[in-house]
Amino acid sequence: MLRRSGLSLGQYFLRRKNRAGFSWYFSKTKMSRLVQAQRLEGIDKNVWVEFVKLAATYPTVNLGQGFPDFPPPDFVKEAFMKAVGGGNIMLHQYTRAFGHPALVTILARFFGKLLGQELDPLTNVMVTVGAYEALFCCFQALVDEGDEVIIIEPFFDCYEPMVKMAGGTAVFVQLRPKAAEAGKLMSSGDWQLDPAELASRFTERTKAIVLNSPNNPLGKVFTREEMELIADLCVKHDVLCFSDEVYEWIVYDGKEHIRIASLPGMWDRTITIGSAGKTFSATGWKVGWTLGPDRLLKHLRTVHQNSVYHCPTAAQEALAQAFQREFDSYGKPDSYFVQLAQELQQKRDWLVRILVARGMKPIIPEGTYFLMADFSEFKSEVPDVPDSDEPYDSRFIKWMIINKGLVAIPVSTFYSSPHKRNFDHFIRFCFAKAEATLKAAEDILQQWNLEKTGQ
Question: CA 231, 237, 243 angle in degrees (round to 5)?
Fold first, then answer.
């Protein structure tokens, strides 16, 4: 009878208005057991999901999320159009799972030269879906239950949950600010590791340290001496290094990016992570890579082949052509890597001037898209709630988005729970934006300042 009428069991109960039967049916079918895996406990919240949604709800100028709102260079776009519009139909199909042959070949040549290593494109390079997947593969492949992973604060927020998902324990060590010279703004270089404190974090349970230079959110570019300190401790304690170098080309004021894998004793224990999105201003392409010895990368390949398996072929082909161009023009004035850093340094300096004029105290970054700013002078705008579980900077930015139309990211996000309150008077701005976007932000802050002073 039910099959003849075409009704589902639920519709049958409703049509007969048999509410008791309907409730009985669903009470018996609803799962009562806990469904989520324990490894997800406490990592369900994500600042990017929360603040991107809030920014989309109100008319805003977005200096929060780290993506350029200007296009990639013409040669990169042209390479992509050629890949998808040319006659090679295989560029629309699967390619090699661990990296398109053309891309891994040029990555091996390019970075082999920089690292002083002869890289095998098939065993020393693996292409991933952005640096995010590269990091995920590192933790899943090489961190086990009970392992400790050292994370330097402030840190990009995905490191800690990825350690937890792998069953490891995150151990934190802070970059501590030194007082700036009189009359000068603080620099990201003024934030330094205490050598004794760092050494104390290495134990017999330490499996790896995560290094992010240039650092997001601070913009610190670690010096050679700081790198050597970390390298010596890794060698002494037989510890791996996951080196997140996605902002490697974005350094300012003549600073030098040091690749820790190039230091003595480090190639064999380091996985270097890069990002085409940050390198060529195309974050939506989601192509990244890992470089390292085969003894480590073979385990990352196991994770990759059993999860993502494959990255977009056409984007990899386009990036192979883009890297070939940069290989040929490396260090020359027409190199995009040279031009991008010069352009972003100008934008950095502009945003610094804007913030200083409006009463904030920016920390001058040596690299990356970002700068941190002390907004203590604005705290009267949003009264503190001492008993609130939410850090002050997070509540301030939500208020700023809704009432001023300006988006930033709370710096407390980049600290472990015990330390969030110590840094909730800082917010992070992204200056990798078009001039029109930065001008709109300047107008908002100028109007805000006029309202504060009653003019």
Answer: 40
- Is 25 a residue whose pLDDT tops 80? no
CA distance 321 to 106: 9
> pLDDT digits over 56-69, tens only?
899 999 999 999 99
pLDDT band per the 50, 70, 90 thresholds, residue 10: low
Instruction: Tell me the CB-side half-sphere exposure of residue 282, using CA atoms within 13 A.
Output: 20
- Express each pLDDT in 110-162 by its tens digit: 999 999 999 999 999 999 999 999 999 999 999 999 999 999 999 999 999 99
DSSP state, residue 181: P
DSSP conformation letters of 238-251 = T-EEEEE-TTTT-B
Q: Which of 65, 30, 75, 147 is nearest to 401 (CA)?
A: 65
Dihedral sign for Cα atoms in the order 31, 36, 37, 41: negative
pLDDT digits (tens, 9 = 90+) for 413-442: 999 999 999 999 999 999 999 999 999 999
- Of 451, 441, 358, 353, the closest CA to residue 401 belongs to 441
DSSP letters for 301-349: HHHHHTTT----HHHHHHHHHHHHHHHHTTTSTT-HHHHHHHHHHHHHH
Summarised one tens digit per residue, pLDDT across range 70-94 is: 999 999 999 999 999 998 999 999 9
Compute the distance between CA of residue 248 and CA of residue 259 in angstroms, rounded to an integer.
9
- Asked if 311 and 287 count as a contact pair (C-beta separation under 8 A), the reply is yes
Q: Residue 414's closest CA among 406, 402, 422?
A: 422
CB-based contact 152:173 (threshold 8 Å): yes
Residue 383's contacts (CB-CB under 8 Å, 6 or more residues apart) are none
**Residue appearing with tokens 């001058």:** 364
Give the per-residue SS3 of 48-107: HHHHHHHHHHCCCEECCCCCCCCCCCHHHHHHHHHHHHCCCHHHHCCCCCCCCHHHHHHH
Both structure tokens of 62: 């977005």
| CA atoms within 13 Å, Cβ hemisphere of 413 | 26
pTM equals: 0.92
Reduced to 3 states (helix: H, G, I; strand: E, B; else coil), residue 160 is helix
